[in-house]
Write a structure and sequence with these properties.
The complex is a heterodimer of chains A (295) and B (306). Chain A has 295 residues and is an all-alpha fold. Chain A has twelve helices and no strands. In chain A, helix 1 packs across helix 12, helix 2 packs across helix 4 and helix 2 crosses helix 12. Chain B is mainly alpha-helical and 306 residues long. Helix content of chain B is 79%, strand content 0%. In chain B, helix 5 packs across helix 8, helix 6 crosses helix 8 and helix 8 packs antiparallel against helix 10. Classes of the chains: A mainly alpha (295), B mainly alpha (306).
Chain lengths: 295, 306
Amino acid sequence: MAERLSRSDIQVLETESVSLWRKSFRRLMKNRTAVVGAALLVGIMLLSIFAPVVATHNPTEQSLRNQLRPPSSEHYFGTDDLGRDIFSRVIYGSRISLLVGVGVMTLRGIIGITVGMVAGFVGGRTDHILMRISDAVISFPGILLALAIMAIWGAGLVNVIIALSVVGWPQFTRLVRAEVLSIREREYVEAARGLGLSDVGIMIRHVFPNILPLIIVYASLTISAPIVSEAALSFLGLGIQPPDVSWGRMLSGAQRYMRVAWWMATIPGLAITLTVLSFNLLGDGLRDALDPRMN
Amino acid sequence: MLNYTVKRLLQLVPVLLLISVLVFALVYAIPGDPARMLAPPDASDEEIDRIAERLGLHRPLPVQYGDWFLGVLQGDWGNSISWGRPVLPDLLRRLPATLQLAGLSVLFSVGVAIPVGVLSATKQNSLIDSVSRVGSLLGLSMPNFWVGMMLILLFALQLRWLPASGRRGFEYLILPAITLGTSGMATIMRVTRSTMLEVIRQDYVRTARSKGLSERVVIYKHTLRNALISVITVIGLQMGFRLGGTVVIERVFAYPGLGQLAYQGMMHRDTPMIMGNLMLFATMFCLINLLVDLIYAFVDPRIRYG
């Protein structure tokens, strides 16, 4: 009897959560900022996917006859010091930014959520040790630690993603742990335990789905951070390396020509700002729709 | 208060220990050969062996760590590979410039954000509210080093009002401080606005109003004061980001602070310099957070005795 009751309890909770998702989606579509952000983001994604079609020039092709040309009908955003077409480079640069953003958030999520769930669920000394380690990682200014890792491991796309993930996972851990601590004591977790589910099973089947909305909101609110960090690393010369095109790297090259070529310094920065802005708008909207607590 | 301060200071010890382990591990416990990394790029295998021998790199890691950490405690932070002189005095000499920059950027962030945030909240949905909300959204979306480049383009190259690089007087600090403070300003503005809106609806504010207090007293004495707690939290939370930002922004403005030293260390793979910078920045971060907690405890007695 007790078993049947708790099973149906769990079912009720699960069907409720499905309709919650649907409700959240409806709320999201009514949120104007979120829709604007999502639309911008879809646009940027399409541009990066269809970069070869959209770009007017080869982004890495140099042309010594066309150095530092101002914007024109031939070169929409002008050319840089090596005569490369800035419009095409900006289009291709979106690929690196989006890749770094998604890659870093995924890796941070995997590390941070695992550590947070283990810390919160197991508790005791494990919890204590894991949390002290994440405290120590948080104590470093993120960009400085990432720079140090890049300096020691060497520049390049893969190391950028790893370095930025190493730096940012503890925030996920703190969030997830706090949530797990409160969920751990709920009736349905006790019911699941009563049904003989293992700790790992409970974490995957019952705890994880319940913290998922929070994780989605947090991830969308913070995904722009690794994008900006990559730009900063590349700006300092310890991030993305040529031939990969990075907005940060373009800005770094623009510094020497600020006096004569304002477009070199302006356009890639606008591209970063627009990308970050669209993520921020979407994140704000998601927060309002999915998690009223985080207002 | 004294008890609380001592307690918090003691709690700092294990965190700093762990930080030092992480810094050490970053250089010495990575896959690969630390001796090769510490050697000049063109060193032969024998030279690398000699370096490993001289630095005792064949000893077990915990022994090496203990040795290094004892040195750190005694003020021996190793010699810079690029300059061949002790790291610590150089770090300490650059420290004031960076603290000045960070401090001024906090002043800028707070000085602009709080008045605008208050106005935005008290005149909700007005023009100034819309402008400040769009402004803070933009401030959060622009990469700080690009803000710096744009400020240089406008105020240094076009208008020629302010210098673009160096540190030879107060005017050299203005553009870097604004650059470093922009995103912090945007966040503080948001938080000020939203907490003000929350506090304004509290019962005690209604009571203050119904007592016949003037709107100014209600806003500044009853509402803003209580909203400030969350503002202090945010300033504390931002400090890590702000300190890290100095590395990038000092580079943009060729500002001779710790950040530049860190940057040069990174570019030359100067490991003692990198480790020194990591230790110093992390320690600063911990001390600032401690200070924020103490300010809390001072403001809110419940924390002291809780």
